[in-house]
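Journal club side-thread
Mid-discussion, someone asked how the predicted structure for our own chain would compare to the paper's figures. Pasting it here so we can look after the session.
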Amino acid sequence: MAFFDKVFASVGIGSATVDTKLERDRYTPGETINGVVEIRGGKVDQQVDDIYLSLNTTYLKESDDKKYNVTATIDRFRITSPFTIGKNERKEIPFSFQLPLDTPLSIGRSKIWVTTGLDIKNAVDPGDKDFIQVVPNQLMNAIFNAVDGLGFRLREADCEEASYKVRGRLPFVQEFEYVPTSGPFRGRLDELEVVMRPSGNGAIELLLQVDRRARGLGGLFAEAAGLDETNVRLTVTSADIPNLQQQIQSVIQRFS
């Protein structure tokens, strides 16, 4: 019977299982995530070569004029060296890692989750999937409030594949697409796209795409040629929060 237990374990039947328990499920970019990986042995002793945590999301990729969702690994963390998990043994391995600053926010269709896996030779890799909520930090919240205060309404938020000129270490950026419904830019802009790129010193680089509304025949030709869009970069810090709305308004006005 022991022989058959070993055979079954090698194909994932009666083998080790894994369950990750996070300290909480709500974080801001840059915060530390703490938790415990619980491993339960199967019907036989098994060598575990590696335990890893992967932080994942999805983004839209375009090919042949079609858009489709692709899973991307934001970061990957190895949390232990090789060890043996005994028959029916239970182990708890604590872990800690920093949520990367460029992790997308849980807004719109953007989902973020942690995947846990064990590398076990000749066995199916048992996995575990835990979703987390990534919420804006103080400066990000101030940016959202400033844009809202200028009369813009968030229409869509999504992670999309980006060009090498715009992307950071990841192949995508998270875009927040706004439309003006009131305030000084209603009737002047079609939309405003905002991308936030946090840096390690607490600053955020804002990439703004200002899409002007066509005015007259010349405006229609400009819109058809894509000349009605202007890309602007603006770096802000926590010190700018009291005057953030005025700063963003001033930048948009120059190109609207």
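Post-session note: The chain has two domains: 16-134, 138-254.
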